[in-house]
Amino acid sequence: MLIRAREVEKRYGPVRALRAVSFEVAERGCLLVTGPNGSGKTTLLRLVCGLAAPTRGMLEVGVDRSQLGFVGHEPLVYRDLTALENLDLYGRLYRVPERRERIGMLLERFGLWDVRNQRVSAYSRGMTQRLAICRSLLHDPRLLILDEPYTALDDEGAAVLDRELDALARERTLVVATHDVGRIGPLAETRLALA
Known about the structure:
By secondary structure, the protein is α/β, with parallel strands linked by helices. It folds into 2 domains: 1-63 and 146-195, Rossmann fold, CATH 3.40.50.300; 79-141. It contains 6 helices and 8 strands. The longest helix is centred in the last third of the chain and has 14 residues, at 155-168. The protein is globular.
């Protein structure tokens, strides 16, 4: 198993952000996390990423942070840089081999090649989301964690992401929190419904 969780819970003072959950995700598996707003989906993903620590329970993730790709509510790109500059910066940080070729391939695949030299501040929210997805895939992570990845994507962007996730599910481990269960459901081997 790549991820094991036993009675994992998270509290911030007296506030319970995540009720105790247990689950396992195999290498090359897909965990679909669902639930209403406020049920702890984002908190759980932050725990799996190592951005927060459980208050109680046991959580084991079999990859280090360098092998993890994350898309959250914030795109984690610099608005004053272009798409090329953003991805080149992240590529250097992750020491991506042949990063320029990889950057070009991702920008082309996600429909951003023609706007690669524009500052991200000029992008729509959907274009910024596409760039965030490119950023998360740039270093070819073993574990991809996506929090509402379809946010702001138009039909074309959603279709591109569908194809990408379908291909990735065969070779990577995915943890996806979404309200759009119909898109991810067919890929999910494990489902976790939070209340």
